[in-house]
Amino acid sequence: MLDLDFIEIPLYTALVMLGALVGLGATWLYLRLRLHRAATLRVFLDGAIIVFVAGWIGARAYHVATHWDYYAARPDDIAQIGIGGMAMRGALILGFIALIFYARWRRFAPAKLLDATAIGLAIGQAIGWAGALVHGANYGIVSDSQIAMDLPDLYGLVAPRFPLQHAEIILFAVLGLGLVLRAFYKPQPGMLFVVYVLIASAANFALAFQRGDETLGWSGLRIDQWVDLIGLGVVLLFWRYARRGGNVGIN
User: Fold this and answer.
1) What per-residue string of b and e applies to 1-24 under the rule 16 or more CB within 10 Å gives b?
2) Are 58 and 50 in contact (CB under 8 A)?
3) Cβ neighbours of 141 (radius 10 Å)
4) What is the pLDDT of residue 160?
5) What does DSSP assign to residue 40?
6) d(C-alpha 118, C-alpha 112), whole Å
7) Secondary-structure breakdown of the chain: helix, strand, coil percentages, each rounded to the nearest 5
8) Quick one: average pLDDT of 66-71?
9) CB under 8 Å to 190, separation ≥6 — which residues?
10) Residue 84 DSSP label
11) pLDDT confidence of 206, banded at 50, 70, 90?
């Protein structure tokens, strides 16, 4: 618990909020370089609020839907965001939809907004996963591997576990740094977003086999993994079409 004298904030919530703010700052800095009109304070904040609200709703709704057995028995916990339970995939799905609609409304190039968002997301997720680590959320499976660490699950039960949260922190920290460095070379609009989705989806698909928290599944895979596969497929089709010179409709 983070005690600020006038209010106490769960450390999980504080780190997730910090990740969101840092990611937002990184997004704004990129837009200052590549899309000045979208970086004006009023326009940027309008878009950020719309995307954040959509992402927050999507994140909570996705988590509740994929853990419905738990929440069906505890309906009062659905609104208890402070105890954990925000699914990034839900935030991405609804947030990206809101972002594209906002870009169309403002007549911005969606591809550049998606690039900026990819940088902010990678950096923000690295910090957000630190929140999952201290809270015990999204914990790894019990393992006798040499890299296993004594870690708690969401209920405080400590056991030798695959260090999933650590792996995710490293993944997104490295991905964020790589995207920032690549941005200096002024890549084709939309390419940073493509790289983000490809790496994040592929890595999370693989890491999901090491997750210890229960969720809905189908045909031997978690629903999260199916979403990752769909994301990979969509982006690969977009990339292939773009390389052939097609009009993908987001430039």
Assistant:
1) eeeeeeeeebebbbbbeebbebbb
2) no
3) 17
4) 96
5) S
6) 10
7) 70, 10, 25
8) 81
9) 111, 112, 114, 115, 238, 242, 248, 250, 251
10) S
11) very high
Q: Using CA atoms, how far apart are residues 178 and 228, in angstroms rounded to an integer?
A: 21
**CA 136/CA 220 separation, integer angstroms:** 25
Own/partner pairs for 171-174, CB < 8 Å, 24+ apart?
171/199, 171/200, 171/203, 171/207, 172/122, 172/123, 172/125, 172/126, 172/129, 172/200, 173/123, 173/126
Any residues with CB less than 8 A from the CB of 76 and at least 6 apart, and which?
none
Classify strands 217-218 and 149-152 as parallel, antiparallel or unpaired. unpaired
Residue type, 169: I
Which residues, in sequence order, are CB contacts of 214 under 8 Å at separation 6+? 67
Question: Where are the chain's structural domains?
Answer: 2-243
d(CA 81, CA 76): 11
* Tokens matching residue 56: 């927050």
Contact 136, 13 (CB under 8 A): no
Give which of 248, 213, 13 is closest to 128, Cα–Cα: 13
Crossing angle for the helix pair 88-106 and 223-243, to the nearest 10 degrees:
40
Give the tens place of pLDDT for each residue, 70-106.
788 778 777 776 565 678 889 999 999 999 899 889 8
The answer to whether 250 touches 111, Cβ cutoff 8 Å, is yes
Give the Å distances, CA to CA, from 242 to 116, 129, 246: 19, 33, 5
137 and 81 Cβ atoms separated by less than 8 Å:
no
